[in-house]
Design a protein that fits this description.
Shape of chain B: globular
Distance between the termini of chain A: 47 Å
Strand content of chain B: 15-25%
Radius of gyration of chain B: 19 Å
Number of helices of chain B: 11
Number of strands of chain A: 2
Largest interface: A-B, 23 and 29 residues
Oligomer: heterodimer
CATH superfamily of chain B: P-loop containing nucleotide triphosphate hydrolases
Order of helices and strands of chain A: HHHHEEHHHHHHH
Structural class of chain B: alpha/beta
Number of helices of chain A: 11
Order of helices and strands of chain B: EEEHEHEHHHHEHEHEEHHH
Shape of chain A: globular
Largest sheet of chain A: 2 strands, antiparallel
Distance between the termini of chain B: 27 Å
CATH class of chain B: Alpha Beta
Structural class of chain A: mainly alpha
Chain lengths: 263, 261
């Protein structure tokens, strides 16, 4: 849900970035959107923790308010320019290979998205790697973490900032459906299949990669939307995992109930 | 009846705490001795957990200050350890018993550093003390209530602190675990560790503690058990609840000068 909220809340960032730079260059827009994404997650966290609002209420208030602010900014200042969040948000994965970086020497070094998202990937891996213990303890037992002198607030905001930044960067390349689907489905699949945190992260990554590859071939074979096919495959993998886990636990329950009758 | 002492391990001065302008603790002023097993007793909503949380710096104080070993909390964090209420965390969180107890070492580890061999040995030793060695690779979602509480205690032990604050460690645990925990707490206080426990069950107060704090938003009493666990003070703490009162006087008669070795 936070991903969905961010997709709307970044609009004022895009407008402000445009007004400030005067260009519709995607990197500038991305910076504006990224900043607003992080601000909106902070605002959501702040309202939930300090304002004692329910988390869905604070998400709702934050993103509608920021989206509306963006709309007002557009109508007041940028009337003649075609500007909305589609400039940044609704990337289409099919166009990624077309948007390549060409060096001054004329050599094509491949799609821009690979470099941008590759950099984000490395940053996220470094963050999780270095902060693994702190992230685990502040997620599991924040009060205990504070009693040890580890700031639960700081790590929560750092985590949220990374979620937000990853979301915005991915929106620009692959579009909203894929981001929301891949934020949730692989992680949910992994949560069903294991109870170990490191295994869970590993399974989630593998599921994500399999969904992307599977979706790619599905889209080619049916000649349909790539993003739609990838999200569908992610959903199907989740469904298979769900049915598998359900049937397994049901089997276990039957056995134990029979045992207890016998006993 | 508040007994103040010289050279206290914990000194609380004029402490008041409120949640959203509603006062929860009023003007608590006391000093606690080192190496004792101390119980915090009082009815529901008396502010027992709040008192622990404010000492641990988890909630803002409206007024007053707290010194531990004569210093503010920040300078002595490594010497104190906290056991939160068992219900305060999600036990479905994907992690193992060993990993939870290892969290007790994180305060010393700091950012980037991986646990050393000595940290692992301390964790195993702590698990041994609570009798949970055999469960070290279990996922915490597979534990019973008593086992969860033992894991929390092991995590606190792994900090190797001098002062331990425990929020209802006996809530919802089986009799065997309660006995094991009490023995552990006794052996800790024998090593001159100070252990402060929020406790609910009046039946066992006289058997467990050396010193008690009677709390009902304000401090009713703080002192050695022989002087403080009296019908008058309990009545003052729990208010004039009649059913409770008769129960209490029965209890006092039964528990007056209990056998203690």
């Amino acid at each position: 849900m936070v991903g969905d909220a961010i997709s709307h809340a970044v609009l004022p960032g895009i407008v402000i970035a445009f007004l400030w730079s005067g260009s519709r260059d995607s990197v500038t827009m991305l910076l504006g959107a990224g900043a607003l994404g992080i601000i909106s997650t902070f605002l959501i966290e702040f309202l939930t923790n300090k304002g004692n609002l329910q988390s869905d209420a604070s998400i709702g208030v934050t993103f509608t308010w920021l989206f509306a602010l963006g709309v007002i900014l557009i109508s007041a200042f940028t009337g003649q320019v075609d500007l909305d969040q589609e400039c940044v948000l609704y990337g289409e994965i099919a166009y990624v290979p077309l948007d390549t970086i060409v060096l001054n020497s004329g050599v094509d070094i491949g799609p821009q998205a690979i470099y941008l998202l590759g950099a984000v990937l490395l940053m996220v891996i470094a963050f999780v790697w270095l902060g693994f213990n702190q992230l685990r303890i502040t997620s599991f037992d924040p009060q205990y973490a504070i009693s040890l002198g580890i700031s639960a607030t700081l790590w929560n905001y750092l985590l949220m900032a990374f979620v937000s930044f990853t979301t915005v960067a991915s929106f620009e390349s692959v579009g909203a459906i894929l981001v929301v689907a891949f934020l949730i489905a692989p992680a949910a699949t992994a949560y069903l299949l294991t109870k170990r945190l490191k295994t869970m992260i590993f399974i989630a990554s593998i599921t994500g990669i399999l969904s992307a590859i599977g979706g790619h071939f599905l889209a080619i074979s049916i000649n349909g939307s790539i993003a739609g096919a990838m999200a569908t495959v992610a959903g199907i993998i989740f469904g298979i995992a769900f049915v598998y886990v359900r049937s397994k636990t049901k089997g276990d329950a039957k056995i134990t109930s029979r045992e207890s009758i016998v006993a | 009846m508040i007994t103040q002492i010289d050279n206290p391990v914990i000194e609380i001065h004029d402490l008041s705490v409120s949640y959203e302008k509603k006062p929860v603790l009023w003007d608590v002023d006391m000093s606690l001795p080192e190496g004792k097993l101390i119980g915090i007793i009082g009815p529901n909503g008396a502010g027992k957990s709040t008192l622990l949380k404010s000492i641990m710096g988890l909630i803002p104080l409206s007024s007053g200050y707290i010194n531990i070993e004569g210093k503010p909390l920040k300078e002595v964090r490594s010497k104190i350890s906290y056991v939160p209420q068992r219900e305060s965390v999600d036990w479905d969180f994907p992690t193992s018993v060993f990993e939870v107890v290892m969290m007790g070492r994180y305060g010393q580890l700091g950012l980037l550093k991986r646990p050393r061999k000595s940290d692992r040995e301390i964790v195993m030793d702590s698990l041994h003390k609570v009798g949970m060695e055999a469960f070290k690779d279990r996922q915490i979602s597979e534990l019973s209530g008593g086992q969860q509480q033992r894991v929390f205690l092991a995590r606190a032990l792994a900090q190797q602190a001098d002062i331990y604050f425990m929020d209802e460690p006996f809530a919802g645990v089986d009799a065997a675990t309660e006995k094991a925990i009490v023995e552990l707490l006794r052996s800790m206080s024998a090593q001159n560790k100070t252990v402060i426990v929020v406790h609910h069950d009046l039946q066992s107060v006289a058997r467990y503690f050396d010193w008690i704090i009677l709390l009902n938003m304000r401090l009713v009493a703080s002192g050695p058990i022989e002087e403080t666990f009296t019908p008058e003070l309990l009545q003052e703490t729990y208010g004039g609840k009649l059913t409770l009162l008769t129960e209490i006087s029965d209890l006092i008669q039964k528990n007056r000068f209990p056998n203690r070795e």
